[in-house]
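Extended Data, panel c. Modelled sequence:
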Amino acid sequence: MTNEIKSLASYVTYRQLYDDGKHDIYYVVSKFAESIIISQKLYLFGITQITEEINSQFGFFIPEYVIQSSLKRLDYISRNNNQYTVNVAMVMSETDVVSSTIENISIKNENIANNLIKYVEERKGTLSIEQRIKLQREFCSFLLDDTVHNGFSELISAFILENESDEMFQSHLAQIKEGAVLFAGLNYNSDISDNSAWKDEIIIYVENEILFHLAGYNGIVFQRLAEELFSLISEMNLKNKKKVIKVHYFKEVSDEIDSFFARAIDIVEGKSLVTVDNYAMAEIVKGCHSAADVIDKKAYFNSLLQNKLIKKEDETNYYADKYHKYNLESEEAIKKYQLTDDKLRYIKHLNYVNILRKNNHSKDLKRSKYIVLTETGKMLKMATEFCGDFTCTPLAVNMYTLTNRLWFDLNKGFGANEFPTSFSVLVKSKIVLSKILTQNVAVKFEQEKDKYHRQEINEDQLADSILLLREEIKKPEDIGKGVVEDILSFISEEQLVIHQSEKELLANKLQDLEKERSALVDVIKHQEEKVNVIQKQAKEQSEYMRQQNDELIAKRKDDLKNQLADIEKRKEKADMRIANRLNRIRTFIIGLTILYYVGILIFFIKGNENVKLVIPILLAIVPPMISSLISILDGEKFDFFKLYKKLVGKVEKEYTKKLYEEYLIRPEKIIEIKRRLADMQ
């Protein structure tokens, strides 16, 4: 049994202690330190010594500062001049829980490793000692991190899927994976005691495959992985009470998406073909009968990005002189990584992020400020190598790494009913097999096309090959125990050979697909002759779509103008009635005031001497007295005209509300229509 297989037991133990210690990492590490002290009878040691012993014994890589802090949890240890002394009397009463747990788990790991070797040897023959060691190492890497090695990856995935229904087996692998996730949180966090909300703003630049995953174009499994990640991003922003994590995408991603949907229109109109390995394109064109259907799907896609608050990055000239010192792009790098024209965005986007970081790379992912999110292996490899220092956060990470980090910092732990799909070893096995299968299909598709161009096969044979290859393509959610052997058989074939017996088995399917087959043959036969026609049709279609779009906008503007005119007409009538009512009220008040003073005058003229004496007194004393009383009650100086305006204003407001409801008028609707018309200019 290799040291790597033994170390798997350490991760299971780590996971169990993590739950026992109420998610206290210092407690977990102290237990591993205690195991070393007891088993090796260390009574006097230095921090470097015990760090090396722990990492060597358990297959970990734990920084010294973490172990130093963890030793404080052990009451029987005292520190003096950088040396640690153990109280022998106290330590004798402690139990080495780590060693006993690891020993029990190691037995399970050894059985699994032996069964894996047996499974592989049944398909590849007897393995040498070196091959067995390589197989076990790849198996450990498969479980502990997100790397995929080409040697035994498909057989490791198949082995896990063959044991899909073995609950004990799957549960044990899950515990190993969960321990690895927790341990990863220790290593990519500069301060493990700080699992609070992320405080520094970070912008994540997503590549197009992430957006297609989120839209479901690459299948249910990848969509679930993306949705879980974005859910954790939202949760972290909510915990932080502000949008500290932002998601953007560069212009090249936007351009590539536009080009992708344009190709989809060509496919729907019969001007191009879907390659057999292009999941996303097949999903987009599915059910589309015209260019309009594709445009509708693109509109839905853009709406999804808006709802997820994913925005296009403002254009910046990253090639300005002031950025040259941070530049990573070079002919040497392009040649080294074999970047073709359609892959140049890999180095461009990593270069942009390096410029934004100003060549400063944090050791803590959440403080990296800018980072690319991608599932492209070559881009991830470049991102790590460009940073140079492997302890720093690379220029790009994948969904697995970011999900793990957010899960760890949100202190989710394990044991819940649901945790991210990216933690599932079973799901990873399906993804790996699906990718390997797709790569093999793509290679064999190119082989068959080369045979056709060399006239080794005819058009009918090429069409049959394409149909057969399409049958072999499987998304991760389509892969299970029942199809594993068929997949391994297909992958192991060096060439795609269509025998007469295979044709007979496909006869019924070929009958249903005859129309598609004929179209494929016709396109292949006349492809070169139709280049000029296709270009002309594409130009006409583009002009037609532009005219249709202009007409649609014009129609929408006319509709909005008609709505606005109708509302304003009804508002004009209502406003006229309101003005008339207010004029009548004002006339009534003026008339009433005049009538009041005329009455007093007449009463004064016709009254006797006593009345004539009283009226001036009343006019001089009573009104000011009433005004003073009202001022005292209201708390402010009485003003007749202010009272008049307030009364008229209240009547105007109530009457306006009543008439606007009667005439179905909403002022905010007018404002909205005018804004929309302004946006269309």
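The chain has 28 helices and eight strands. This feature is highlighted in the accompanying rendering.
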